[in-house]
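Can you please make up a protein's amino acid sequence together with its fold in token form to help me picture the idea?
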Amino acid sequence: MGTKGAKLTSASATSAERLQVSLASLGDISIRKMFGGYGVFEAGTMFALVDSKGGIFFKVDATNVEQYEEAGSIKHGRMPYYRVPDPVLDDEPALQEWAQSSIMVSRNAK
């Protein structure tokens, strides 16, 4: 998911595929091309996005946004998604914990 007219890049595809593999133990994780990037889904519910440059963003609400803000994360435009900090991306157990939180946010939003 990126800016209008953005093209998929190899960085975007690599990030989406890496994320899918890293989070496979959390459930039915799938990726779908969307607007120059990828949507990341668990059991059909979108909880993350990968922008056209390969940046990974997880969905937030009042239950987890403070964690992202304290880590210096940036928001993805007007959408309720924040960039996953690099130290979290490099720590698979932490990445899974943050992803699980965003999966719950997405489920609760339905």
Observations:
- The chain is about 35% helix and 25% strand.
